[in-house]
C-alpha cells in the first residue's frame, strides 16, 4: 500500500516539469509559414532581353518569432524574360536539400555547388544523374501593366519529388 | 525486464547495488515528516533544471531580445506562461524550503561534529541558491529586474579595494547591456547550477556517510528509506507543488514588467520578497555607513552561521545557536513586514507600481503587433499613450493640468495652476466650457492667465448673455464647427452625423461682421490671431506648442507659455506625442486583440 502510494505520488510530481516543458518545446509544431501575397521584385526593363536570368532578392515583411521587420530580404529568385511581357521566376534554392543554386553564364544553366545538381534555363533537371528529385521551383509571377514584376514567393519541401509548399 | 537482461546490465554496471544503496538507506527511529526538507530541495532543484533547460530553448540574452523572448514565451508560446510560472514560483518555494531545512538541521543538532563539513556545504548551497535568484531576476530584462539588480550590483562596488573592478566584471562593463545579460545568464544557467550539483553530490555523500541525525526521542524501530520516507517526501513535494500551481494560475505565470529602459525612471523597483529584509535593513544606514549595512553586517551574520559547529561544542552553544537562528528569522520577518508596510503607506510607491502595471500591459499590447529589431523599449519610447503623459508632467504640468492632475495621475498643489486643463482639448465639451463667459475665467481655463482680461473674455461676457435662444443654439453649433476642425477620432461619428448643424456653425464662424472672423483669422479670411484654421488638429497643436508666441497664435499677447520647439526644450517628435496623446490618438489593437507578431495584420 505504502509502496503503491509512494510510486503514484512520486510519479505524479515527477512528470509535471517535463510535461510543462514539452508543451513549450513543441510550440513550433503549431506555427505555419506565412502565406504571402505578391511582392514586387523588379521592373521588366531591368532584365536582359536575351533571356539571361538575373538573381534578385525578394523583399517583404519578415516575421521572426517576436520581431516584425518590413522590407527585408526573405529569399532570392532568378528572373528571366521569356517574352515581351512574360517572365519565368525560379526560387534560387535547390529543391534537393536547400543549397543556394548558382547560375553559370558560360554553360547557360544552373548548378548547385553542394551536390552537383544541374538545371537548364527553364529549371528542369539537366544532368539525369543530378541528386535533386525535381527541377527548380518555379514561382507564380505577374507582369503588371506598368512593367513591374510581382512574384508570389514561396518555399517548398526539400528532397521530395512533388512540389509541396511549406 | 526479464531477469536475464537485468543481470546482463547489472554485471556491467552494478546498478542493483546502487539502487539498493539509494533506496534502503537506514532511517533510524522510522520515517518522519521532519526529514522531508532535504529531499524536497533536491526534487525542486531538479524541477528548476528541467524547466530552466526548456526556457533556455526560447530565451535570448541581449538588450534587444531578452524582454522580447520572455514576452514571446509568456504570451505566445504554448503553455509558456505555465512553464515560466513553474520556474518562477518554484524558485520562491525553494527559498522557503532552504530556511526550513536549515531550521531542522539546527534544531536537531545535525550541524555538530562529525557533520560540520556537510553543514558548511549546505551553507554554501544556500548562498548559491540566493545567487540564482539574484541572477535570474535580471534575465527578463524588465524595468523591475533591471532597476532592482542595478542596486545589487552597485552594492558589490561598495566593497573596499576590488569593489568597482568586481562590479565591472560582473556587469560586463561600466553600464548594463548585452554583456550583463550574457554573463548573468551564464552564471544563472551554467556556473551556479553546476556548482550546486557538485555540492549536492558532496552533501549527499557526507549525509550518507554519517547517516540521519535522528530527532530524539526516536518514535520507533529503524526502517529503510523506501517506501515510508519516500512517500512522506513525495507527499511534501506534492503539497508544495500544489501551492506553486495555485500561484501560477493566480498570476497567470510569472510577472513581466515593461521592457527595461535606462532612461525611464522606475520608482517601484524592489528586490524579490525574500530579499526585502536586506532592502529594509539598508534604509537604516546613512550614506557613509552604507557598507556596514550592505556588506559588513551580512558577512558577520554569515560568519556566525558558519561557526555554529564550533559554538555547538560549548555547554550552552546549542542554545545559543537556536537563539541566534530564531533571532535571525524573527529579525528578517520583522524587516520584511516593515518594508511591505512602508510601501503600502507610500503614495509615491503605489502610484509608481500602478503606472508600472499600465506600462507592462501596454508593452504587451504593442509587442503583439510585432516588435522592431530595435526592441520593445523603442516601441514604448515612441508610443504617444506611454510618453504623452510623461512629457506633459515634466514640461506642461507646471502650469497646465490634465483632468486635474499632472498627466500621470499625481495631484499637484492648487496654487500652481495658471493655465487651462487640457483634457479633451478641442472637443465639443472642452470648447463648451471654454467659450462660456463664466467658466472661461475659472482656473480650469483662463482664470490664472493674463488672457482673462483679454478681448476674447470681454467679447464672451458682453455678447453671450444677450444672445437669444436661437443665437445661443447657433453659437453652440459654431463650437461644434470649431471642434470639427480638430478632427478628433472620438468625434468622427458626431462630426458626420451633425454635418448640417456644423455648416450652420461654420457660417457663424465665417460671419466677418458678428462671428468669430470679426476678429480671428480663419481659412481665407486673414484677420487677427490666434488662427482658427485647423484649430486643435495635430498640426495646429504641434505648431502652437512649438511657438505660441508666433504671430499665428498669441504673438505679443503670449502669457508665459514657452516656445518649446523654438527654444529646443522639446523635439518635434516629443511635441507630436503630446499632441497625439491629448487628441486621444495612439495605437489601439484591433478588436479581439492582435493575436501575436506572427499573425498577419
Plain-language structure description:
- The complex is a heterodimer of chains A (166) and B (601).
- In chain A, the strands form 3 sheets. A 4-stranded antiparallel β-sheet of chain A has the order 2-3-4-8, with no helix packed on it. Chain A has a 3-stranded antiparallel β-sheet with strand order 1-10-9, with no helix packed on it. Chain A has a 3-stranded antiparallel β-sheet with strand order 5-6-7, with no helix packed on it.
- Helix content of chain A is 14%, strand content 34%.
- Chain A is of the alpha+beta class and 166 residues long.
- Chain A starts with a helix and ends in a 14-residue tail after the last strand.
- Chain A has 2 domains: 31 residues; 121 residues, Rieske [2Fe-2S] iron-sulphur domain (Rieske Iron-sulfur Protein).
- Chain B has 601 residues and is mainly alpha-helical.
- Chain B is built from 23 helices and 2 strands.
- Chain B starts with a helix and ends in a 19-residue tail after the last helix.
- The chains are: A alpha+beta (166), B mainly alpha (601).
- The interface between A and B is large, with 29 and 43 residues.
Which key terms come to mind for this protein?
heterodimer, A: 166 residues, Rieske Iron-sulfur Protein, four-stranded antiparallel beta sheet, three-stranded antiparallel beta sheet, 10 strands, B: mainly alpha, 23 helices, 59% helix
Q: What is the topological layout?
A:
The complex is a heterodimer of chains A (166) and B (601).
Chain A: H1 2-25, E1 38-43, E2 54-64, E3 67-81, E4 87-91, E5 102-104, E6 109-111, E7 118-120, E8 138-139, E9 141-143, E10 148-152
Antiparallel strand pairs in A: 1-10, 2-3, 3-4, 4-8, 5-6, 6-7, 9-10
Chain B: H1 3-13, H2 15-23, E1 26-27, H3 36-56, H4 66-75, H5 80-107, H6 116-138, H7 143-158, H8 163-171, H9 178-210, E2 223-224, H10 225-250, H11 276-282, H12 290-311, H13 317-344, H14 347-367, H15 376-381, H16 384-395, H17 428-434, H18 455-463, H19 469-486, H20 492-497, H21 499-509, H22 538-546, H23 572-582
Antiparallel strand pairs in B: 1-2
Helix pairs in contact in B: 3-5, 3-10, 4-5, 5-6, 5-10, 6-7, 6-9, 7-8, 11-13, 12-13, 16-23, 19-21, 22-23
Amino acid at each position: 500500500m505504502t509502496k503503491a502510494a509512494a510510486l503514484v505520488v512520486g510519479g505524479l510530481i515527477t512528470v509535471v516539469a517535463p510535461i510543462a516543458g514539452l508543451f513549450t518545446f513543441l510550440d513550433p509544431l503549431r506555427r505555419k509559414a506565412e502565406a504571402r501575397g505578391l511582392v514586387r521584385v523588379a521592373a521588366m526593363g531591368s532584365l536582359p532581353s536575351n533571356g539571361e536570368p538575373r538573381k534578385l532578392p525578394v523583399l517583404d515583411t519578415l516575421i521572426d518569432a517576436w520581431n516584425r521587420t518590413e522590407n527585408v530580404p526573405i529569399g532570392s529568385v532568378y528572373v528571366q524574360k521569356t517574352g515581351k511581357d512574360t517572365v519565368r521566376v525560379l526560387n534560387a534554392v535547390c529543391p534537393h536539400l536547400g543549397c543556394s543554386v548558382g547560375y553559370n553564364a558560360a554553360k547557360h544553366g544552373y548548378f548547385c555547388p553542394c551536390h552537383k545538381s544541374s538545371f537548364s534555363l527553364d529549371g528542369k533537371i539537366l544532368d539525369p544523374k543530378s541528386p535533386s528529385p525535381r527541377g527548380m521551383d518555379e514561382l507564380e509571377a505577374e507582369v503588371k501593366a506598368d512593367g513591374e514584376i510581382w512574384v508570389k514567393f514561396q518555399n517548398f519541401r526539400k528532397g521530395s519529388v512533388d512540389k509541396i509548399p511549406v | 525486464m526479464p531477469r536475464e537482461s537485468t543481470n546482463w546490465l547489472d554485471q556491467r554496471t552494478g546498478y542493483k547495488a546502487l539502487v539498493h544503496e539509494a533506496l534502503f538507506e537506514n532511517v533510524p527511529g522510522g520515517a518522519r515528516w521532519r526529514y522531508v526538507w532535504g529531499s524536497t530541495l533536491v526534487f525542486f532543484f531538479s524541477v528548476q533544471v528541467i524547466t530552466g533547460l526548456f526556457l533556455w530553448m526560447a530565451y535570448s540574452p541581449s538588450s534587444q531580445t531578452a524582454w522580447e523572448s520572455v514576452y514571446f514565451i509568456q504570451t505566445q508560446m504554448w503553455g509558456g506562461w505555465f512553464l515560466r510560472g513553474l520556474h518562477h514560483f518554484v524558485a520562491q518555494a525553494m527559498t522557503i524550503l532552504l530556511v526550513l531545512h536549515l531550521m531542522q538541521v539546527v534544531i536537531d543538532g545535525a550541524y555538530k561534529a562529525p557533520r560540520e563539513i556537510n553543514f558548511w556545504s549546505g551553507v554554501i548551497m544556500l548562498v548559491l541558491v540566493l545567487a540564482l535568484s539574484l541572477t535570474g531576476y535580471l534575465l527578463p530584462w524588465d524595468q523591475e529586474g533591471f532597476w532592482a539588480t542595478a542596486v545589487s550590483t552597485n552594492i558589490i562596488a561598495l566593497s573596499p579595494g576590488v569593489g568597482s573592478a568586481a562590479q565591472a566584471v560582473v556587469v560586463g562593463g561600466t553600464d548594463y547591456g548585452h554583456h550583463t545579460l550574457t554573463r548573468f545568464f551564464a552564471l544563472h544557467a551554467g556556473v551556479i547550477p553546476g556548482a550546486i550539483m557538485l555540492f549536492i553530490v558532496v552533501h549527499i555523500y557526507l549525509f550518507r556517510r554519517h547517516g540521519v541525525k535522528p530527532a530524539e526521542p526516536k518514535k520507533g524501530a529503524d526502517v529503510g528509506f523506501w517506501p515510508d520516507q519516500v512517500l512522506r517526501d513525495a507527499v511534501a513535494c506534492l503539497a508544495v507543488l500544489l501551492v506553486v500551481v495555485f500561484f501560477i494560475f493566480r498570476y497567470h505565470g510569472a510577472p513581466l514588467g515593461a521592457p527595461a529602459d535606462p532612461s525611464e525612471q522606475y520608482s517601484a523597483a524592489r528586490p524579490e520578497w525574500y530579499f526585502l529584509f536586506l532592502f529594509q535593513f539598508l534604509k537604516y544606514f546613512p550614506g557613509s555607513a552604507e557598507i556596514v549595512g550592505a556588506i559588513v553586517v551580512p558577512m558577520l551574520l554569515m560568519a556566525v552561521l558558519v561557526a555554529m559547529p564550533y559554538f555547538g561544542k560549548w555547554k550552552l552553544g546549542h542554545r545559543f545557536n537556536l537563539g541566534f537562528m530564531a533571532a535571525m528569522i524573527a529579525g528578517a520577518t520583522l524587516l520584511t513586514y516593515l518594508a511591505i508596510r512602508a510601501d503600502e503607506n507610500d503614495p509615491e510607491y503605489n502610484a509608481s507600481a500602478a503606472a508600472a502595471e499600465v506600462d507592462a500591459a501596454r508593452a504587451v499590447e504593442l509587442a503583439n503587433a510585432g516588435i522592431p529589431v530595435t526592441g520593445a523599449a523603442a516601441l514604448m519610447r515612441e508610443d504617444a499613450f506611454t510618453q504623452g503623459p510623461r512629457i506633459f508632467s515634466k514640461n506642461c504640468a507646471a502650469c497646465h493640468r490634465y483632468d486635474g492632475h499632472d498627466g500621470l495621475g499625481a495631484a499637484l498643489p492648487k496654487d500652481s495652476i495658471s493655465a487651462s486643463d487640457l483634457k479633451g482639448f478641442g472637443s465639443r465639451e472642452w470648447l463648451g466650457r471654454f467659450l462660456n463667459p463664466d467658466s472661461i475665467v475659472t482656473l480650469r481655463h483662463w482664470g490664472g492667465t493674463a488672457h482673462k482680461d483679454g478681448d476674447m473674455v470681454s467679447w464672451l461676457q458682453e455678447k453671450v448673455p444677450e444672445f437669444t435662444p436661437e443665437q445661443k443654439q447657433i453659437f453652440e453649433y459654431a463650437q461644434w464647427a470649431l471642434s470639427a476642425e480638430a478632427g478628433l477620432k472620438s468625434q468622427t461619428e458626431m462630426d458626420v452625423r451633425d454635418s448640417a448643424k456644423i455648416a450652420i456653425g461654420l457660417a457663424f464662424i465665417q460671419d466677418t461682421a458678428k462671428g468669430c472672423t470679426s476678429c480671428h483669422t480663419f481659412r481665407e479670411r486673414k484677420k487677427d490671431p490666434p488662427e482658427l484654421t485647423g484649430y486643435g488638429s495635430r498640426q495646429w497643436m504641434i505648431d502652437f506648442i512649438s511657438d505660441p508666441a508666433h504671430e499665428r497664435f498669441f504673438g505679443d499677447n503670449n502669457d508665459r507659455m514657452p516656445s518649446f520647439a523654438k527654444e529646443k526644450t522639446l523635439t518635434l517628435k516629443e511635441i507630436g506625442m503630446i499632441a497625439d496623446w491629448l487628441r486621444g490618438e495612439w495605437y489601439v489593437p484591433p478588436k479581439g486583440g492582435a493575436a501575436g507578431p506572427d499573425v498577419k495584420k
